[in-house]
Amino acid sequence: GILERRGDNQTGYWEIKEVGNTSPTPPSTPSITPPITPLHIPLITPPTTPPITELEGKFIELMLQNAQITRKAMAATLAVSIDVVKEYLERLKGKGILERRGDNRTGYWVIKK
User: pLDDT for 8-56, tens place per residue?
Assistant: First the structure.
């Protein structure tokens, strides 16, 4: 699913949305298809997401439990400083798990994976 931040940090909330299959319909296959041999099979490795640490998981869990949680509330709940909260949000962004949409006051976070 996707977690999206709606509104600002004071009055906003987290919205959870399910992600369906958004891939386009494959084109119709021609009536004659060549035989599949090892030369025709592409070697594609699916992208992998770096593992999530225990504390990163706690941040995600807090956002899922309370859609309106602030950085200050995250820091208080996990007994860490605001700087640690900022650091871990940046780590999650760096791993491609979080994306910031909007500005600092009215923007929101989107969990992509």
Answer: 766 777 777 665 555 555 555 556 665 555 555 555 666 666 788 899 9
Strand ranges for the chain from DSSP E: 2-6, 13-17, 98-101, 108-111
Tokens of 82: 């605001």
Q: Sheet containing 108-111: which strands, arranged edge to edge?
A: 13-17, 2-6, 108-111, 98-101
Pairing verdict, β 2-6 and 108-111: antiparallel
Is the entire prediction scored with pTM above 0.90? no
CB atoms within 10 A of CB 59: 25
